[in-house]
Amino acid sequence: MYAEVVVLTYQSPEIDAYTYLIPKELEKEIKVGQLIEVPFGKRNPLGIIIATYDRHPRESEDQILNPFNVQGKQVQDDKKVVIKPISKIVLENPLLLPYQIELIKWMSSYYLAPMVNCLNAILPELPSKLLMVHGSWHKQNKTINYELSTVNQSLILVPSINRIPETLAKFPKAKNYVVYHNELKTSEKFAIWTKIKSGEVDYIFGSRSAIFTPCSNLKQIIIYDEHDGAYKDERSPYFDTLTVAQKISQLTKTQIKIVDPSPKITTFLQLPKNIKIQKIP
Length: 281
Description:
- By secondary structure, the chain is α/β, with parallel strands linked by helices.
- The protein is 23% helix and 20% strand.
- It contains eight helices and 13 strands.
- It has a six-stranded parallel β-sheet. A five-stranded antiparallel β-sheet has the order 2-1-4-3-7.
- β3 (35-37) and β4 form a beta hairpin.
- The longest helix is centred in the middle third of the chain and has 13 residues, at 98-110.
- The N and C termini lie far apart (62 Å).
């Protein structure tokens, strides 16, 4: 078996993903969306699996050499390709949901950006202790129940963090909620990410980055003041939040609602039925 992996390190922008061999002892444990460690030149960076294959996706089998059969000998035939094996699984449970994998591929194509940049825009920063695979953190979190809940989830976006408290007040039924934004501590942000993914919350309030949270049963995305420039990211892949929300809606059959006193003309013409023009006192 083989895995297509986006390697989380500096690399050539022309290559989106690399193919790695899945060792026999890991075949039953490997999952799409998993965080793994792979050999990459002289380094051993982390990567995310975005696809798995029974056969190599790019070459015929007679052109592939299993590195376990090479026995350390240098391959002389330039037509032969040695596929390196995955080093180890860092986190047993996937960090990303299937629709997020499709979202990464779409963002890379739509924004003409390297897939690793799209993945970095989506994923929260990983806590340093998370990488200590044999440490106490990893052992404790192996016992967490990651079964996805059937609770309906609502994602509420605001242009700036200081708008979150007043927006929370508009949802009195939101008792089981979390707040997600880039000003959180790394460990807090990652803990909230895993909590959202497991379906333990039904409301997620946040700024632009919250659009990427792994909502296992997302039913609606509500965007306040969508005209605000804060919804446009100024780093590669330079994504627009509403555009990403529309793709997520397509992938998950989620409803989009826009609450805005002065919507952009393009938004008003494109999504007239999704807009509620908020009255300003």
